[in-house]
Amino acid sequence: MELLGRSPGWGRERDTDRDALLRPLPQSWPPPHTGRSPPHHSLLHSGHQHSARHLSTSGETFAIRALIITVNCSVHAGILPETNSDGVPGGGSEGEQKEVRGKLADAYARHIAPAVKLDICSHEAASAGGIRRGASRAEWTAGWCAQFSVLLRRGLKERRHESFNKLRIFQVLSVAFLAGLLWWRTPAAHLQDRTALIFFFSVFWGFFPLYNAVFVFPLERPMLLKERSSGMYRLSSYFAARTAADLPMELGLPTAFVLILYWMGGLDPRPASFLLSLLVVLYSVLVAQSLGLAVGAVLMDVKQGTTLASVITMVFLIAGGYYVQHIPPFIGWLKWLNYSFYCYRLLLGIQFRDGGGLYDCGGGALCPIAEFPAIKAVGLNNHWVDVCVMALLLVGYRVVAYLALDRLQPR
């Protein structure tokens, strides 16, 4: 191997090579094969084959220029290829060839690599910006109402078979008929049984929709990520359509349940009482579903969501005002977060309006129904407060679910 000193014009030639890096290749590139590869070809190919393989299509031409100019820099730096005794390039020992490759790599890193990285990064940044701008434009090609309409129709078609499958219908109707037989025509004097029936309304439709809603967003996560990344629709239109599509699906079975159990249980036969009780139960269903959606959207895992839902169910069941009537003050705040407690109190107020009259409290004495222990612990007042608190819970849980979906990122 022969080492040469740097020529006087080496700096100017290096600048010329860096400028040539940005010029397009001639149409005749690559040069025709002459049967004998240039001496630098094998060295550069072995030294940069792995890195060139990972360049993008737009960066391959730039990499070829870089390899050509690396050779020029190596010549200016004083590195000449070794020749054998016949004057054919490519001779020399293996150690000398490794030394040449090392010097070529060092020359590339010092003189060429910065310009290569700068050019490739600028191209990638420009391409990424164009993709983002194109996706942003494509995302809003349809208006919000059009997106909502399409997503609503799709949701109704998909959820129809899920919400009204035979197994779920059998589950709800069988529970309704069995409970109706157990509470068959409960007399008005049996206050304990009547309050238990009312509590069953609030508990069953306070927790059954919760478990069903936990599965929604974890199962739709792959589809939501794929469609949103392609700019198909806004998250707000998807969420609103999902909420609207759930209304007829999630409220049909509770309506049938109340129709069966209310009349079989012998509750207040006045039409106004029945309609108000039905509305309160449906209201509780929406709040419970909102909590389930929030849990599923935050955790995005079916197992974790069902575990947390079971804990919430047990806590709300115990603190619902029926099993424990005198909750210690330091933990009494739990019942104020319990939507089933508000549903239970509203149903009691509907069945026993204006104090509820009198009942036989033993020994032939008559006592106000409002003083019955199970009813007195809950109270029959503040109905509008209960309605407003449930509205806040419904909206709050939905907002939490929306914000959790907005932060959703691919794993």
Automatic annotation (TrEMBL):
Per the record, the domain of life is Eukaryota
Which stretches of sequence are listed as region Disordered?
Answer: 22-56, 81-100
Which InterPro entries has this protein been placed in? ABC2_TM, ABCG_transporters
Q: Name one GO cellular component term.
A: plasma membrane
**Gene Ontology terms for molecular function:** ABC-type transporter activity
Do the record's keywords include Metal-binding?
no
The record ties this protein, via Pfam families, to: ABC2_membrane (PF01061)
Where composition is biased (Basic residues), the residues are 38-53
What keywords tag this UniProt record? Membrane, Transmembrane, Transmembrane helix, Transport
Q: Can the keyword Membrane be found in this entry's annotation?
A: yes
Membrane-crossing residue ranges in chain numbering: 167-184, 196-219, 239-263, 275-299, 306-324, 384-405
Which cell locations does it reside in? Answer: Membrane
Q: What's the protein's topology in the membrane?
A: Multi-pass membrane protein
Q: Where is the ABC-2 type transporter transmembrane domain?
A: 147-352
This protein is called ABC-2 type transporter transmembrane domain-containing protein
What organism does the UniProt record list as the source? Triticum turgidum subsp. durum
Source lineage: Eukaryota, Viridiplantae, Streptophyta, Embryophyta, Tracheophyta
